[in-house]
């Protein structure tokens, strides 16, 4: 069993168990989905047939479920004393891509488990979420609890798993974890917000960059708007050069950045010291197709040549 950081967690766990036990009742009361309209009686064209063929696997994948016997076998392994068998069951559930695969994992985490099983289960949640198979109603509550766990590595894994969910409630938790004491947790929250294109995280990520928080650099680069970059450039001399080089270097590689701004960013990077600035220029030049002779690429190469000659 997990030793929670606070006595209040026991009550939270009990509340979660009640929520989970009521899940079936809620599901049974949900309104039926509107049936799809019947297909046109006209003979489909080749293009429409191809589109239907391509779309069908995605629909089938979203409806994939594991048989009850396999779920029961997984529950038995998770409740048993054989750690190897439990971890194998967790890995199998996480890799199944099934919509109901999270159920035994939710039950185990709600009751509490040994650290190795807990971390493996959270990783399995992340795999299921990445494939669109993590149902918010069955997993959100337990992941919310574990995102505030006393162990940083557990919080980090829970935050990663939450980031894969399509539940809008996730955003508030990710924003809160940007203030976590552990760098890894802050970084995971920033990456999750960037993956979701959640610009609500920009102010906090910028505040972290101003404190030279390396984990906030790439997420800020992914979410930054063009008008924010001059503010980042103005931090030169007050923030670690490596952190600034990462923000600007990642930003300049974005396809949506106009080349006239890339020129300014490339020159700003060149004005930074250290290997990180050189690496950012090298990576930018390498990211541009060989046949693309854009001005910013030529400028970056010229600045690299100047740096090399100055050695």
Pick out its properties.
mainly alpha; disordered N terminus; Leucine-rich Repeat Variant; 18 helices; 311 residues; elongated; 2 domains
Q: Can you tell me about this structure?
A:
- By secondary structure, the protein is mostly helical.
- The protein has 2 domains: 1-24 and 66-196, Alpha Horseshoe (Leucine-rich Repeat Variant); 201-311.
- The chain contains 18 helices and no strands.
- The longest helix has 17 residues, at 46-62.
- The protein is elongated, with a radius of gyration of 24 Å.
**Any low-confidence stretches, pLDDT <50, length ≥5?**
1-46, 48-62
Q: How does the major sheet shape up?
A: none
What is the second-level CATH architecture of the largest domain?
A: Alpha Horseshoe
Overall domain count:
2
CATH level-3 fold name of the largest domain: Leucine-rich Repeat Variant
Form type: elongated
State the separation between the terminal residues, measured CA to CA: 58 Å
Number of strands: 0
Helix/strand order, N-terminal first: HHHHHHHHHHHHHHHHHH
List the helices and strands and how they pair.
Blueprint: H1 8-21, H2 23-29, H3 46-62, H4 68-79, H5 83-96, H6 102-111, H7 115-130, H8 136-146, H9 152-163, H10 170-177, H11 183-195, H12 202-210, H13 217-223, H14 229-233, H15 241-252, H16 259-270, H17 275-287, H18 295-310
């Amino acid at each position: 069993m997990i030793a929670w950081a606070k006595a209040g967690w026991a009550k939270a766990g009990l509340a979660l168990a009640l929520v989970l036990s009521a899940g079936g009742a809620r599901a049974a009361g949900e309104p039926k989905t509107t049936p799809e309209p019947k297909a046109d009686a006209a003979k489909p064209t080749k293009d429409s047939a191809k589109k239907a063929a391509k779309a069908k696997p995605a629909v089938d994948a979203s409806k994939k479920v594991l048989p009850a016997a396999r779920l029961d076998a997984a529950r038995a392994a998770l409740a048993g004393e054989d750690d190897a068998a439990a971890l194998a069951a967790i890995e199998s559930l996480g890799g199944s891509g099934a919509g109901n695969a999270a159920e035994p994992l939710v039950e185990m985490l709600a009751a509490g488990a040994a650290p190795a099983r807990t971390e493996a289960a959270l990783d399995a949640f992340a795999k299921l979420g990445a494939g669109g198979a993590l149902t918010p109603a069955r997993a959100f509550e337990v992941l919310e609890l574990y995102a505030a766990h006393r162990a940083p590595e557990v919080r980090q894994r829970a935050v990663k798993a939450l980031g894969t969910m399509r539940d809008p409630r996730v955003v508030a938790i990710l924003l809160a974890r940007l203030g976590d004491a552990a760098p890894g947790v802050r970084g995971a929250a920033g990456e999750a917000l960037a993956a979701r294109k959640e610009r609500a995280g920009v102010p906090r990520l910028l505040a972290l960059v101003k404190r030279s928080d390396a984990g906030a650099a790439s997420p800020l680069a992914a979410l930054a708007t063009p008008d924010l970059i001059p503010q980042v450039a103005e931090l030169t001399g007050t923030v670690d050069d490596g952190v600034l080089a990462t923000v600007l270097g990642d930003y300049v590689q974005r396809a949506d950045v106009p080349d006239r701004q890339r020129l300014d960013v490339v020159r700003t990077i060149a004005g930074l010291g250290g290997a990180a600035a050189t690496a950012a220029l090298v990576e930018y030049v390498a990211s541009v197709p060989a046949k693309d002779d854009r001005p910013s690429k030529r400028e970056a190469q010229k600045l690299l040549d100047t740096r090399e000659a100055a050695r």
